[in-house]
C-alpha cells in the first residue's frame, strides 16, 4: 500500500509517477493540499517497472525519509486542470 502522486514537470510538459510509502504517508499528508502547488526536494528517482506503470514516463519518483515537501506561495506556475 502507498499513496500515488502525479508530478507535472512544467519545463518539459510531462507527467511523472511518484509514490509515498505507506509508512511515510502520515508524515507527508499535511503538506499535500488539494489545489496547492508544491516542490519536492531530496527524493529518489528510479526506472518504472512495466508492471506498475500508470503513465508513459520511464522513471518514477519515490519519497524517502529525507524528502521535503513545501508549498509554492509566489511564482507558482499556472496549471491547466484539463
Automatic annotation (TrEMBL):
<protein>
    <recommendedName>
        <fullName>DUF223 domain-containing protein</fullName>
    </recommendedName>
</protein>
Amino acid at each position: 500500500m502507498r499513496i500515488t502522486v502525479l508530478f507535472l514537470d512544467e519545463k518539459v510538459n510531462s507527467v511523472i509517477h511518484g509514490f509515498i510509502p505507506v509508512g511515510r504517508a502520515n508524515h507527508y499528508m499535511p503538506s499535500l493540499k488539494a489545489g496547492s502547488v508544491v516542490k519536492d526536494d531530496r527524493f529518489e528517482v528510479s526506472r518504472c517497472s512495466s508492471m506498475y506503470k500508470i503513465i508513459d514516463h520511464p522513471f518514477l519518483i519515490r519519497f524517502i525519509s529525507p524528502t521535503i515537501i513545501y508549498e509554492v506561495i509566489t511564482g507558482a506556475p499556472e496549471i491547466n486542470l484539463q
